[in-house]
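Input.
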Amino acid sequence: MLKKIFIAISFFTILSQAHADLKIGTTYFDPPYVLSTTQGFEIDLMNLICAGLGVKCKFIPMSYNNLFTAITNGQIDLAVDGIDLYVGDNPLNGNFIYSLPYLLSQGQIITLNKNPSMASLKKGCAVGLVQETNHSGSGIYYTFFQKHYGKKFTIKPYLQIDKLIEALSDGSICAAFIDDNQANYWLIHSNGIFKAISQPEKVADGIGIVANSAEATLIAQINQQIIKIENSPKYIQLYNTYIANSN
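Output.
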């Protein structure tokens, strides 16, 4: 028993020395996951995780497509913002490691309310996606959409979700393929401008936290915190505040 306590204390000493603050990359605005660097489902979740680890969260906002580069060059330790992942080896995961998933990974197509159905969209029209990496023709969502809808639509990438929504609002694109929690948020907050024309579709195995492959120890400890939070009322409170209320 004393040996186990010593190991636990030793680990947290090492963790606190290596990461006095956890630098967490995220986007500027991507509801319901990130409303600001102080509010959002994943902002609150990370604050709970950091508290459990005995460190402070330092959120660093940037465009979504820069998150993975920032991890690679050491600018940040972790990244969150509805990041999709596959459990196990998959080339679309890149050279990164991921936490346990804590939300489903599902995509949905939304369009202007005047378009009655998918069939009403003109063949070849542009559908907006958030650009996931610095290469516009790559990423989990891009690959999924290209495989399932590439013969009907063209893809137009956007660096930020708000720019994508703006383009959909003014008719620059005919539709948007986004995470279903994002879709629900914008359907509720669009004053009836948008509508969903597809059911949520599984895109990957879930949504989680991403880190450099060298951070296996940190991710293991984060996974312990995720399990602890999911088995407590705190997770339900977070879900009801940000996810359930966006549905």
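The chain has a mean pLDDT of 92.
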